[in-house]
Amino acid sequence: xFTLNQLESFVAVAETLHYGHAADRLSITQxxxxxxxxxxxxxxxxxxxxxxxxxxxxTPAGSAFLSDARRILGLTEQATLSVRRVPTGQAGTVTLGxxxxxxxxxxxxxxxxxxxxxxxxxxxxxxxVSSIQIEELHTTDLDLAIVRPPVxxxxxxxxALQTEELLLALPSGxxxxxxxxxxxxxxxxxxxxxxYSPTEARYFYDLLAALFRAHHVAPRYVQHIxxxxxxxxxxxxxxxxAIVPHSATALNIEGVHLTPLTxxxxxxxELVLAWRSDTLTxxxxxxRQLIEKxxxxxxxxxxxxxxxxxxx
Length: 312
Fold this sequence. Notes:
The protein is an alpha/beta fold. The chain has 9 helices and 13 strands. It starts with a helix and ends in an 8-residue tail after the last helix.
């Protein structure tokens, strides 16, 4: 099998058609260069160069082999650069878990920035409820997880990413949606409400239960659902109202009116990034820093747009 040194020597001679010039390019003398070419020709079983007067020319076999030799050398250089990027966090595979609502807030800019600035990092996405993400962090099926709190401290590290205000989702034409720029939490007493699942969406279930207790409000639960997009679809179908995080505004579900909810200001929805420090790869550390930066930028943008009119 030929060696990379032999290929480099062949390409140098083929491009200069002069052994002396090729030897200078490779910083070697002519005798070892000639031996490399001879060894390569014996390995391939063909002559790569022929004589033309006092100079040399490529044979048909040499011309055909030149493009392949260049491609092999190029792949070798690319592989070398790629593997050197791994310890610096510029290359590798990162498996990122996220909740459904996250896909409509910070996930999109994370993906775009990774593709633009860290194209050698392969970002593998996994949509999971928070409890499953925590389990998969422990089993190392996930490198990073964007979850709702709390994050069990045993073996995991976490940092707060965002807080989102809660909005009231109403079917278009609902009494509370007509002529109101906002709705008071106490107006939900006795109202038909689509509630979160106490098992699969425990965080939101506990958050809203605490909100209702604080204001002595008792809505009438008509469904228990785990995913925000499904909840909004049911709201649009007229089944009842719902309380959703601000990121739900990106869904634009037809027939849904989103409006601020007075009284919910002290009960925002929180978002947390979690990981295992003992298994965090350099590439995962790079994406972790990117997520933290993106979350801060998105949070500022949301605050600037908070006073926009309710979404119809």
